[in-house]
Amino acid sequence: MPTVLLSLNISHAREVEINGRSVMTAIGKHPVQEPVEVRLLGLAGDEQADLSVHGGLSKAVYAYPSEHYPFWQTVRAQAKVSLWDEALKPGSLGENLTLAGLLESEVWIGDVLRFPHCELAVSEPRFPCFKFNAAMGFSQAAKLMASSAWCGFYLAVRVQGSLRAGEPFELIAGPREVGITELFRSRVAAQRR
């Protein structure tokens, strides 16, 4: 299956109410069609609300496999927060890049995603928080992500440039010592102890 950037998503941080308290979040990204500049700290026009867990040089861009979207659409319908045929729009999981053809189980720390006009290096898995539950609309979303290891992954900007929805990309293997899925599962297990 060819690897392609299906959707390029950005958002400004905004204040929302979650469980009776006001918090800043930028999890609800929206797709853009025009090219977006890729800088060392992320995409032009995109923000992260909590820089203690998102953003920075190693977590500049967040990628998520589109192959998991049907699962999230189904569990949201089962939780009665959406209709069965209500599509979950790209960026809904907080990702900047909605990818096709590349799953977490195929990605290792240090691998590089080479796009036509930039390069991004895989740095670590994403770990969900209470804001993910709010974005999905039900309280078990983070637990489902933890049990499935369908977490997506963060990327560091190796070569600045630009990205555009629809662009193909190539996966360049890194040292292949630590996989995204294994690292995610080991950290989740350590948090449960």
Shape: globular
Compute the separation of the termini in Å: 39 Å
Contiguous helical run count: 4
Structural class: alpha+beta
Give a quick set of tags describing it.
193 residues; 4 helices; three-stranded antiparallel beta sheet; M1 Pyruvate Kinase, Domain 3; alpha+beta; eight-stranded mixed beta sheet
Provide structural commentary.
By secondary structure, the protein is α+β, with helices and mostly antiparallel strands. It has a single domain, classed as M1 Pyruvate Kinase, Domain 3, CATH 2.40.33.20. The protein is 20% helix and 31% strand. The chain has helices spanning 69-78, 130-136, 141-148, 180-192; strands at 4-10, 14-18, 21-25, 30-32, 36-39, 42-43, 61-65, 97-100, 112-115, 118-125, 153-159, 161-163, 170-172. The strands form 3 sheets. It has an 8-stranded mixed β-sheet. A 3-stranded antiparallel β-sheet has the order 6-5-12, with no helix packed on it. A two-stranded antiparallel sheet has the order 2-3. Strand 9 (112-115) and strand 10 form a beta hairpin. The mean pLDDT is 94.
